[in-house]
Every structure is written in structure tokens, then in C-alpha cells.
Amino acid sequence: xxxxxxxxxxxxxxxxxxxxxxxxxxxxxxxxxxxxxxxxxxxxxxxxxxxxxxxxxxxxxxxxxxxxxxxxxxxxxxxxxxxxxxxxxxxxxxxxxxxxxxxxxxxxxxxxxxxxxxxxxxxxxxxxxxxxxxxxxxxxxxxxxxxxxxxxxxxxxxxxxxxxxxxxxxxxxxxxxxxxxxxxxxxxxxxxxxxxxxxxxxxxxxxxxxxxxxxxxxxxxxxxxxxxxxxxxxxxxxxxxxxxxxxxxxxxxxxxxxxxxxxxxxxxxxxxxxxxxxxxxxxxxxxxxxxxxxxxxxxxxxxxxxxxxxxxxxxxxxxxxxxxxxxxxxxxxxxxxxxxxxxxxxxxxxxxxxxxxxxxxxxxxxxxxxxxxxxxxxxxxxxxxxxxxxxxxxxxxxxxxxxxxxxxxxxxxxxxxxxxxxxxxxxxxxx
Length: 431
Ligand code: 4AD
Ligand code: MG
Prior knowledge:
Blueprint: H1 8-11, E1 16-31, E2 35-42, E3 45-52, H2 58-62, E4 69-77, E5 87-97, H3 114-119, H4 121-124, H5 128-150, E6 154-155, E7 161-162, E8 174-177, E9 180-184, H6 189-200, E10 202-210, E11 223-232, H7 237-258, H8 260-265, E12 277-280, H9 281-290, H10 303-315, E13 320-324, E14 347-352, E15 355-363, H11 367-376, H12 383-388, E16 396-402, H13 403-411
Parallel strand pairs: 3-5, 6-10, 12-13
Antiparallel strand pairs: 1-2, 1-4, 2-3, 4-5, 7-9, 8-9, 10-11, 11-16, 13-14, 14-15, 15-16
Helix pairs in contact: 5-7, 5-13
Bound molecules: 4-amino-1,4-dioxobutan-2-aminium adenosine-5'-monophosphate (4AD) and magnesium ion.
């Protein structure tokens, strides 16, 4: 039967005969022995199935459990119900898989705690509201790919097994590589720089990033999906900010255009950002001071500072703010310092409604200065790393964004893990 299957949203469009629908049984309502209603759900929607007395396999319906998978053939007719939605009168029914009872999670009632929901995630996601998060995440992914492609970026895939750390500062997972230690990449940082130097000029990658950090917060994962880009021939970090502004305008425009139903279901309204603020770290400190939050010159923004800045700029009509000129003390050795400011860097963070979603910078491309800066940070660079910068390296910079956090901020979800199909944190490696 499946070769004639149509998605439910198409069946709901008009009356039609001899059509096949397939999906999960959400509810069975038996009215005596001669009439039954089944709510059938697939990835596109729900339809009411009706089995009447003359349906030859009526007995099969008596055993149907919620979340069983069935395939039906029948006629779509005008609604006879209050809902006004077309219904499908069953002529044939095939049970593909009878679901065991009871279900381990309450898919629609909202009484199951978060951990248990993740333990049985494949059931949790059958709630259309949860599925909507992943449909939107998928569109963000596609919009990012389309945007980078349009702007002349080349997609690369970089190694996740490495001999050395690729992002200084971030915690490393060690794996056994044939008796030698290897590390899971905490970012594609050096490889994307290599991509620029390799003559690609503009590269991007959307891939897993590993961080061995025991953070139990609503924004941290030990494995997340990074959207990374790097571009050559820039004059300053402002060139990266320019392109990232356009990226977010494009992503939000695309999600708005293609995910109307999902946004309605999640009760989220999006507006395409016209203007994003750009402030220096010194300006950020002044704003924070007005809100009685004191930061010293070499301090990073902590979560509280980010929240305050988020609220401050929200009041001025922007969900986004770029904070640039981060202190050298808090940035990795490869960030470029401004010519006349040894304590600063040509780097920035992007906050979306008060949470960091991206870090970017112009990188130092002159080997002698890279070596000097590494020394200042007490880092010994190996020869393979240094060689990359020896034979013609354009001025360049880039950014790392978190797809998980972007989805979370876009949909105003409380915990980043809600935006990840199978999240990884210090306490979870399963399923
Ligand atoms: O700020 P991060 O650590 O920056 C880098 O990895 C640099 N190589 C980027 C660059 O090109 N300069 O990570 C970038 C982004 C963060 O802003 C955040 O959105 C996300 O990755 N991120 C995490 N998301 C979830 N869980 C974590 N533990 C994350 N750590 C970073
Ligand atoms: Mg960062």
C-alpha cells in the first residue's frame, strides 16, 4: 500500500478516493461494535480516521494501542465533525507495529520530567511541538548553508580526531588512538584557518564540537554543533560582524517564510533584525556600571553581565549586541591585537537576548607575532602548526556559532538541551 501513501497535510486539502495514509495512532475511540474513530498522526499533521460497521477488519481496531504504526487505505470525505477538518473513511487497515503498553512517557500531557523525556527521546519528539523545534533547527541549518554558499564560502570537513588541542583554553576529551592519546577537536579553529591559507579564501563547516567541561547549566553541552566560518582578506573584525549581521537577517527571514505553522505552534513571533548594536568592551563595562554590575578592565563578561546587556539592548529594540575589543587577558593567543592597544584584541562576542551565541575575531597572520603571543600565554607551538603560516597567509578572521544555542535563543526555550535531539552533558552519554 505504501507506494500510494500521501502525507496527511495533503489529504486534508480536498476530498479524494482510495488514498493511503500511514503514521502513528494518537487516540482510538470505540463507539460500541460498529463505529470507531482513530486520530492518525504523521510528520505533517493529524487526520481523523473513521471505521464503520461495514469495514471488514473492524476487529483489528479493538487491539490498537496508542503510538502503534498503521497504514490505511480509504476515502477522504467532508467533515461531519465540529472540527471541520476532512476525515478518512477506512477501507483497508494494516498494523505495521503494535506499540507496547504502557508508554514510558506522557507524550502529550506534559507530566514527564526532562531527563525521562530524553531517556525516551524518540517518543518525546512525537509531540508536534517538540518536532517543531527540530523542523525549525533544520531550516536554520539550511539557511546557514544557503547563505554561506551565496557568499562564496566553500564547505569543508575537518578532522575531529587530533594529535593536539585545536582551541586553546577549552577542555579536551582524550581517546585511545592505537595505544597513543588523541583528542576530540574542541573547534575546527586551526583547520579553518588552514582552509583560508590553502587558497579557499572563504570556508565554513557545520559539525560536532567537543568540550570536556563539567558545566551543569542551561547553555552548556559537552558535544554541540558548531557553525564555523573563516574568511581571508579582511581589514578588521568589523568585516566579520558585517557578514554575521546579514547571516542572521537571512536565517530569520527564511525561518519566518518556511516555518509559519511551527512558529505558531510554539507561539513564537520573529522580527527580522534591522539594526544590531556594536559596542566595545569598555562601553559594555560603563553600561554594566549603570546597572550596578562592576567589571574590571581585564574581566570577561559573566552570565549575569550578559543578561544585563541583553535586557539593556532589548529595551532599545534590539535582541542582538556585538561586544568587541575583548581583553587580551581573556582571549586565546591567535587573536590579533589592535596596533595601538596591547591589552585589547580584535575580537568580539555576539549576544542574543543576553546569551553568548558566537565568538569571532581577526586572527594574527604574521608568524613572528603569533610566536610572540603564544609565548606570552605560555604556549609552545609545534612545527606543524607554525609551518601553516610560513608560505603566504592572508589577513583573515572568522567566527564560531553554536547551532544549538541559536535554535534555543530563536525559539526562546529555557534549556539548550531542548534544542538537541540527543544531548550530551557531564551526566549523559545515552541514548
Ligand atoms: O566561544 P567559543 O568557544 O569559540 C570558539 O570555538 C572559537 N574557535 C570561535 C572563533 O571562530 N573564534 O565557541 C563558539 C560558540 C559559542 O559562542 C557558543 O554558541 C557555542 O559555540 N558553544 C557552546 N554551545 C553549547 N555548549 C558548549 N559547551 C559550548 N561552548 C561553545
Ligand atoms: Mg566564546
